[in-house]
Design goal:
Layout lengths: L17 H18 L2 E8 L5 H16 L5 E8 L2 H17 L21 H19 L5 E8 L11 H4 L4 E5 L7 H9 L3 E8 L2 E7 L4 E4 L11 E7 L5 E7 L14 E5 L10 E10 L4 E6 L16 E4 L3 E4 L4 H6 L13 H18 L8 H8 L6 H20 L9 E5 L6 H9 L15 H7 L1 H8 L2 E5 L3 H13 L8 E5 L24 H10 L18 E2 L14 E4 L9 H8 L2 E8 L3 E7 L25 H28 L7 H13 L5 H26 L30 H17 L10 H11 L2 H15 L5 H7 L17 H17 L7 H9 L2 H4 L2 H17 L8 E5 L7 E4 L7 E3 L2 E4 L5 E3 L7 H12 L1 E8 L2 E5 L5 H5 L3 H9 L7 E10 L5 E2 L5 E4 L10
Parallel strand pairs: 1-2, 1-4, 2-3, 4-5, 16-17, 16-19, 17-18, 19-20, 26-31
Antiparallel strand pairs: 5-6, 6-15, 7-14, 8-9, 8-13, 9-12, 10-11, 10-13, 11-12, 20-21, 21-22, 22-23, 24-25, 27-28, 27-29, 29-30, 29-31
Helix pairs in contact: 1-25, 2-10, 8-9, 9-11, 10-27, 12-13, 14-27, 17-18, 17-24, 18-23, 19-20, 19-21, 19-22, 20-24, 24-25
């Protein structure tokens, strides 16, 4: 019987995996230091319900990153007065309800009740209710959690002034107090050697201040095998004193400009110079060459060493160094702030800083904002008491990152201790004028409002309604997608009666996602991410959710990836939060429907990019992801290539070919490529085992083929000293000369590789391995006796590989394949045995090609993709994307910003650059055209292809010779059916050629044509954008 059992991973199978990412980025010593910290997260509720957001964001980010290890976190929530709860209780309740994703399954249906009566008993009850909310949010995440809720109308009465209270913490995060109010608190923190992080969000402006004391010691790199560690290939060593070595960046994730004078490097693996292997040297001078190489002078006398052989080149690894950072107290920073290096986007940092300080001092005295006469000061004053969810998400991510630095002792704190960000460019000119005219005596519009009141105040009610009635698609619900979804909910995207929100991600939720995708819970395991996301949002009680049976669209709807192009739906904007290259190309969709796109990508786990695409305003998004090195697997130079090789081998052998074989058994007439049929023949006939011993022989043979035979064949074809036609060595830094691995029973990695492969092979064919089966003894017999069957299989395989004329389809038909054959394709890619196999296979491949071997936690973390949530990157990047959303919804023609976050270089961690303008090309009868320009054809009725050809002749003097849509050819002048195709309606023809019903308003048709006047072939003709009136598109009419 055919069976494909699904295995749900158990908790013990993932033991230790979440903390792997922490170790990768903060080192084992950094993680140990983090576990010893006691953290206080404070926030003041004073102006609006949004005041609670910054504290919740920081707490969420800290719990997500610390969740895998022991942590001691205390929450101090201070409420300015009882009137705050009465005036802002509704919005506060909505925010708490939205953050209910922090609750465990059993708590999600427990609604929050905030009373509205004005008496002391109810206010005390409300304090307890807020305390209960925080305990339920964070106490279940592990570690020790305490919550204090206090009424405090002045900083002098705050528990932060209690010397006994604050002295019990090692890190203090204070939020929404003005820096002017924190002078005394800062002095107490410095007196008790407490690291202090102060965050403040005021409308469109946010700031972070750090004070880690007079002598904060931090390291710049984690474990030497970390993804962030810098190592370089040694290209040349000059025979001089001092020696000059030429280096090329080896760690694809690292930055070649991270090596500086005074740094210490370790030279390893230089086989032609064994005398200096593992030795440490100081960089005396570092020069960067035009070809991205480095020329480094080191304190080494190479004149007495053997000559350097570039074929056997080794590595130069930068040694982690400690730096002492001397921070100033807040009083000195306020007196003389250095703002040049501490801003992400502020155009006038000094004015913004002065505005925040002036208004904070005025508010402290008069309990209202001043009426001012300077534009920036007036904007800050008009929005001072408002809080945007996006600004809170951004500042909360930055503050959480600084807390991680303080807790671990890794990476440089923010420059000059002070960071400012403003989003003034997100507000249109008319709304800015309206804001600055608003009188300071006006009643706070956020009072008695919802969590959207601040947004409506800052951007205007009309813009807020456009946001609510917008139609949006969010593609991919990873760690970044979860943050986007949370922010969009806080903004009310698609929440109006005419709005809609679509989510698309066909990947299924598994146990590994529960630690990095904060939206998902255990009950979601097995569902697709889109289905789980829709179910989560529909449960938010404060939102009006319409029944799916209603004509009004639901707030959020799951959509399959395969249906994105085929299904009839219309959106105003798309957010593509895929960390890697998207499976869906949205550019045709965006051009066809003139839809904007917000796209985030991740480059090798440490560099994140945000790109904004707006029709007629910006150019196409650039491919900022380094090409996946799948085409370099034969001769790798990087550990990541060896990892990809191991994953590809496993997926091919135990999933792809097995699933295809099952498909063939069920349906022998299925269309399968010739190459795959050969592997199906191997699985079903040629190498199909009859017992466990044959499974073990196959596993032993795979070691021989992968690490010995194939490598020896490579060496025979390309010898060590092979010279190319241009006179250079064939083997070099970019092509590592390999070495053969001979199986050794005393080598634990060799033995473990074979044993793991044996277990997977047995599982594939449904064999149970009894405890009485002595695997090691059997393996010894196979290895020592040189079993003839093993080598006969290898020789048979080699002979079969040489026969290109073998018809495997015919062989499969002639074979007696039982219809009840049992195969179990592997599906559990978070099991510890799978992770261990990938690790072992990777380091053996690295050993083959003399590559730096990564540590186990690096392999596991790279496989489990948890970087964004660990470093709060997803919180920061999604906030920047949502700020661009505000600009798109208002129809801006400029002021857009792409963004880059690079965790390998603190000084350039945040950068923003304007997107490029559309590329311009020429077109007949038009002066210029861009990618966004199309030839729009709308005749108000469905027309035939011949009508379209005639229109192009009459209006543009162009004769169409060929046309296509997508990958399907619609018409060609040389086909036999050209006359028949010309007579068909376009919608019908597209359906016949693509086998897909037309579901959009428009069809994009690419054309090849020539000019009827000059008779020249025309290049770069814009596509035809045909308005469709047939098929499924009629639903749009």
């Amino acid at each position: 019987m055919i069976s494909t059992p699904l295995h749900q991973p158990q908790e013990e199978e993932l033991a230790g995996v979440p903390s792997v990412a922490l170790t990768q980025f903060f080192g084992s010593d950094g993680v140990d230091r983090m576990q010893q910290q006691t953290i206080l997260i404070h926030h003041l509720l004073q102006h609006s319900c949004g005041d609670v957001l910054i504290g919740l964001e920081i707490a969420k980010n800290i719990v997500l990153s610390f969740g895998a290890i022991h942590h001691d976190v205390t929450f101090l929530i201070e409420i300015s007065n009882m009137n705050f709860l009465r005036d802002h209780g509704k919005g506060l309740q909505e925010i708490f309800q939205t953050f209910s994703f922090l609750l465990e399954d059993e708590d999600e249906d427990n609604l929050f009740s905030l009373p509205s009566q004005d008496n002391e008993g109810d206010w005390n009850h409300m304090k307890k209710e807020i305390q209960r909310i925080y305990e339920k949010y964070f106490a279940s995440k592990g570690g020790k959690v305490q919550v204090f809720v206090e009424f405090c109308d002045h900083i002098e009465k705050s528990k932060l002034q209690d010397d006994q209270f604050i002295s019990q913490f090692t890190i203090v995060s204070i939020n929404n107090y003005s820096m002017l109010d924190l002078i005394t608190v800062n002095e107490n923190c410095r007196k008790h050697d407490i690291e202090m992080i102060a965050s403040e969000t005021r409308g469109l402006v946010g700031s972070v201040f750090c004070d880690f004391g007079n002598s904060f010691v931090y390291k710049d790199l984690p474990h030497p095998n970390s993804v962030l560690y810098d190592y370089f290939y040694v290209i040349d060593v000059s025979p001089t004193n001092p020696a000059i070595i030429t280096l090329r960046g080896g760690s694809k994730q690292g930055q070649t400009n991270n090596l500086k004078e005074g740094d210490v490097i370790s030279l390893e693996g230089i086989e032609s110079m064994p005398e200096i292997d593992g030795s440490y040297f100081t960089c005396l001078e570092v020069n960067y060459l035009h070809d991205s190489n480095l020329c480094v002078t080191i304190d080494l006398d190479a004149s007495i060493l053997p000559p350097f052989n570039p074929v056997s080149a080794g590595f130069a690894i930068r040694v982690c160094k400690e730096t002492i950072s001397k921070h100033k107290p807040i009083t000195e920073i306020l007196q003389n702030p250095s703002l040049e290096k501490c801003v992400l986007h502020v155009d006038n940092p000094n004015i913004v800083h002065a505005s925040i300080m002036t208004i904070g001092k005025f508010y402290k005295t008069f309990h209202r904002v001043p009426h001012s006469y300077q534009d920036i000061l007036m904007l800050v004053a008009a929005t001072y008491s408002s809080q945007l969810a996006t600004i809170s998400s951004l500042i909360g991510g930055i503050a959480a990152m600084e807390i991680q630095k303080a807790a671990s002792g890794y990476y440089e704190p923010i420059p000059n201790q002070l960071f400012y960000f403003d989003a003034f460019d997100c507000v249109n000119k008319h709304q800015k004028e309206k804001l600055v005219k608003r009188s300071s005596q006006d009643i706070d519009p956020c009072m008695n409002g919802t969590m959207y009141s601040s947004q409506a105040l800052i951007f205007g009610q009309q813009v807020h309604e456009k946001i609510e009635n917008s139609k949006h698609l969010l593609y991919t619900i990873g760690p970044m997608g979860c943050e986007y979804l949370k922010n969009y909910l806080m903004m009310g995207v698609g929440n109006g009666l005419q709005g809609s929100f679509l989510v698309s991600d066909d990947k299924k939720v598994s146990m590994k996602h529960l630690g990095t995708h904060f939206l998902f819970r255990r009950r979601h395991v097995g569902l697709t991410k889109a289905e789980a996301s829709a179910e989560i949002v529909q449960k938010l009680k404060h939102l009006t959710i319409h029944s799916s049976a209603s004509k009004t669209q639901q707030l959020i709807t799951p959509l399959k990836e395969s249906s994105i192009i085929k299904t009839a739906f219309s959106v105003d904007m798309i957010t593509d939060s895929c960390d890697i290259i998207s499976a869906v190309d949205f550019m045709e969709f965006c051009n066809r429907d003139k839809t904007s796109l917000i796209k985030t990508t991740c480059n090798n786990g440490v560099k994140y990019n945000l790109q904004i695409v707006v029709p007629y305003v910006t150019n196409l998004p650039e491919n900022l992801i380094d090409e996946k090195p799948y085409y370099k697997l034969a001769a790798p130079t990087l550990p990541i290539q060896c990892l990809n090789w191991a994953e590809t081998f496993f997926y091919r052998e135990f999933t792809t070919y097995a699933e295809t074989a099952l498909t063939y058994v069920k349906e022998p007439t299925a269309l399968i490529s010739t190459t795959v049929k050969e592997h199906m023949y191997d699985i079903l006939v040629r190498y199909r085992p009859n017992n466990l011993l044959e499974c073990l022989k196959w596993a032993r043979l795979q070691f021989e083929i992968l690490f010995n035979t194939s490598i020896q064949l490579l060496i025979d074809n390309y010898p060590f000293y092979m010279i190319t036609t241009d006179g250079t060595y064939f083997w070099s830094v970019t092509k590592r000369f390999p070495r053969v691995l001979n199986f050794d029973l005393c080598n634990p990695n060799h033995v473990e590789f074979v044993l793991l492969l044996f277990k997977f092979r047995a599982q594939l064919y449904g064999f149970e391995v009894p405890e009485t089966f002595d695997i090691l003894t059997s393996l010894k017999e196979i290895s020592h006796n040189h079993d003839e069957s093993v080598y006969s299989i290898r020789n048979t395989r080699n002979n079969m590989m040489k026969d290109d004329d073998m018809d495997y389809g015919q062989l499969l038909q002639q074979s007696n394949i039982l219809s009840d054959i049992e195969l179990h394709p592997y599906t559990n890619y978070e099991h510890k045995h799978y992770l261990q196999f990938i690790y072992i296979a990777t380091i053996l491949r690295c050993e083959n090609f003399r590559i730096v071997q990564p540590a186990k936690w690096i392999i596991w973390n790279t496989t489990l993709d948890s970087t964004p949530s660990i470093l709060s990157i997803s919180s920061i990047m999604s906030a920047l994307g949502c700020l661009e959303f505000y600009k798109v919804i208002q129809g801006f023609r400029d002021s857009y910003n792409n963004a880059t976050i690079d965790v390998t270089n603190c000084l350039t961690l945040f950068t923003q650059t304007p997107p490029k303008n559309p590329t311009i090309s020429s077109f007949p009868n038009r002066t210029y055209c861009t990618f966004w320009d199309t030839i729009d054809i709308d005749e108000n009725i469905e027309i035939t292809l011949k009508d379209l050809v005639d229109i192009m002749k009459e209006c543009y003097n162009l004769e169409i010779s060929m046309c296509s849509t997508g990958r399907s050819m619609l018409y060609s002048f040389f086909t036999k059916r050209r006359l028949e195709d010309l007579s068909k309606p376009i919608s019908q023809l597209v359906f016949e050629k693509t086998k897909t019903p037309v579901s959009s308003k428009f069809i994009l048709i690419d054309i090849c044509c020539h000019d009827l006047i000059t008779l020249e072939e025309m290049d770069d003709i814009p596509p035809i954008r045909y308005r469709c009136y047939g098929g499924a598109s009629s639903s749009f009419q």
